[in-house]
Amino acid sequence: MPSAAERTRTLVQSTCSAVLLVPGPPPPRPDALLPLARHVGPRGDVFLEFPAASPAVRAATHAEGDELTAVLEITDVAPVSVPHRIRARAWVSGGLTRVTGMARPGRMMLRLEVTEAYVDDLWGEEDVEPEAFRDASADPLVGYEAELLQHLHAAHAAQLLTLSALVGERTPDDGAAHRPAVVPVALDRFGLRVRFCQADGRCFDARFEFPGPVRDITGLRHAMHTLFEAAAR
Predict the structure, then answer these.
(1) How many CB atoms lie within 10 A of CB 72?
(2) 103-139, pLDDT tens digit by residue?
(3) Beta strand pairing status for 46-51 and 124-128?
(4) 3-class DSSP assignment, residue 127
């Protein structure tokens, strides 16, 4: 199971939606506070790139010498169509400052020095210490997860349905017309999470752990093959 710090770090380093909340009135355009790019430095600071005229850049510029606290709010939505599609929210807060010499023309890099973080996701809700966030690693599949889930959903529906055999009485088979829809909703190096949805709208999740953590696509392919073999037996 990934730790809360790993899950938060993965969300920050993913491509899911993020907005930087800074003190002051909201800007006329909501997308003005959406970072153009983001990454995490070796000390756990979050670097955010914005247009030079962004309200976030103005706030950081006017606060030079003073403490400016900002919050990076991240929302993660499942890349496949499924009920209850929001998978996670995370909040990473800390002091916001400008960084010179790191951005392209017309853009500015801001640094968020993390002082606290919180994640609310499919695993539960948990606080994350700054040191744990700094030392954590993003999941190695984060850059491929959306594409992999979409591929599983589109090309391996029959194999996903066989996973019903591994969850027993929770998915009664009353004939093809009443079989639950089986949708892959999350994937990481430790396993696959699937959502079973009945015709009456009831849904539940099942988590299928891999024999061991995978490190790359080759390892994932082997782990998925092993999982589908177990379901077919």
Answers:
(1) 24
(2) 788 999 999 999 999 999 999 999 999 999 999 999 9
(3) unpaired
(4) strand
